[in-house]
């Protein structure tokens, strides 16, 4: 499956971006549940990902989702103890998950450093890969489910999930999940989906708001290489959507997105 051409939507500010993305996500989940009975979404950590989850929690239309028929996965996780406030899961619980009736068996949390794999982050990553493979059906034609939506916060250095520029995890072409050692952004030890796993998703949504993301957005959308700018290498099978605020879009060339969208 080839790369889908990125579509860019620019919102006035990060609050409106979070609210509009929450509305978009609700519709996408309801549509998937209508079509297939269930929906699957991959969550991201970071400021924009958590902002989106908080907006989703605050949206009255969240009740249109059948939370018991939703599978939630993570694109990456910080390999620290389970109750550490730095965990993407801990932050997602606070922003949304503790206030909606999700089925705990469908919330696929990446392992923590005080869990069964202890200090062995590579074994923890392999276990998550096995969980993904178990969830994949024949219709998925591969070792990960065809997620309905996979969200990625874009870091100021163009990292997505825990795939950092020029880092070995960004070069992985076989495994679907890897342990990340020596990440340039703390904490250094992480678990991440790889680019092949990300590209299994039907839709990939990249979120970036704030002026500190403007350079990363223009680099990734301006033709940078995959290893130099992992965000440039993240795309979905049927859609790749960049959801920005004006500040993050400030360095994009004119004409890359419709003016009406901002
Ligand atoms: O470390 C991480 O950072 C990115 C982006 O975070 P942000 O705060 O700059 O928006 C996030 O996507 C990733 O999940 C997280 O682990």
Can you offer a commentary on this structure?
With 262 residues, the protein is α/β, with parallel strands linked by helices. The chain has a single domain, classed as Rossmann fold (3-Layer(aba) Sandwich). The chain has helices at residues 14-36, 46-58, 88-95, 121-135, 195-198, 214-221, 246-249; strands spanning 7-11, 39-43, 70-74, 76-78, 149-153, 177-180, 190-193, 203-208, 239-245. The strands form 2 sheets. It has a 6-stranded parallel β-sheet with strand order 1-9-8-5-2-3. Helix 2 links the parallel strand 2 and strand 3 (70-74). The structure holds the ligand O=C1O[C@H](COP(=O)(O)O)[C@@H](O)[C@H](O)[C@H]1O. The ligand O=C1O[C@H](COP(=O)(O)O)[C@@H](O)[C@H](O)[C@H]1O is lined by residues 44-49, 75-76, 88, 152-153, 155, 161-162, 185.
Q: Beta-strand percentage?
A: 15-25%
SSE succession = EHEHEEHHEEEHEHEH
Number of strand segments: 9
Q: Could you give a short account of the major beta sheet?
A: 6 strands, parallel
CATH class: Alpha Beta
Sheet with the most strands: spatial strand order: 1-9-8-5-2-3
Helix % is: 25-40%
What does the average pLDDT come to?
A: 96
Low-confidence stretches: none
Number of helices: 7
Globally, the shape reads: globular
- What is the alpha-carbon Rg in Å? 17 Å
Bound molecules: the ligand O=C1O[C@H](COP(=O)(O)O)[C@@H](O)[C@H](O)[C@H]1O
CATH topology: Rossmann fold
Number of individual domains: 1
Distance between the termini: 31 Å
Content-based structural category: alpha/beta
């Amino acid at each position: 499956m080839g790369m889908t051409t990125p579509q860019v939507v620019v919102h006035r500010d990060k609050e409106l971006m979070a609210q509009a993305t929450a509305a978009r996500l609700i519709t996408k989940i309801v549509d998937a549940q209508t079509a297939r009975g269930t929906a699957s979404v991959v969550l991201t950590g970071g400021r924009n990902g958590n902002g989106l989850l908080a907006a989703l929690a605050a949206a009255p239309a969240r009740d249109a989702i059948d939370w018991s028929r939703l599978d939630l996965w993570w694109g990456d996780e910080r390999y620290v103890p389970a109750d550490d406030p730095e965990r993407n899961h801990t932050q997602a619980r606070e922003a949304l998950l503790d206030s909606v009736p999700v089925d705990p068996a469908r919330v696929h949390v990446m392992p923590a450093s005080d869990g069964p794999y202890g200090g062995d982050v590579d074994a923890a990553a392999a276990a998550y890969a096995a969980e993904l493979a178990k969830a994949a059906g024949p219709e998925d034609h591969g070792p990960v489910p065809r997620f309905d939506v996979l969200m990625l916060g874009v870091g100021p250095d163009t990292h997505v999930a825990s795939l950092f520029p020029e880092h070995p995890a960004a070069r992985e072409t076989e495994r679907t999940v890897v342990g990340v050692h020596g990440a340039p952004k703390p904490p250094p030890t992480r678990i991440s989906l790889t680019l092949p796993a990300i590209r299994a998703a039907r839709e990939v949504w990249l979120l970036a708001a704030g002026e500190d993301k403007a350079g990363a957005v223009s680099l990734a959308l301006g033709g940078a290489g995959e290893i130099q700018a992992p965000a440039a290498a993240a795309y979905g099978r049927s859609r790749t959507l960049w959801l920005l605020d004006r500040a993050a879009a400030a360095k994009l060339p004119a004409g890359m997105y419709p003016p009406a969208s901002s």
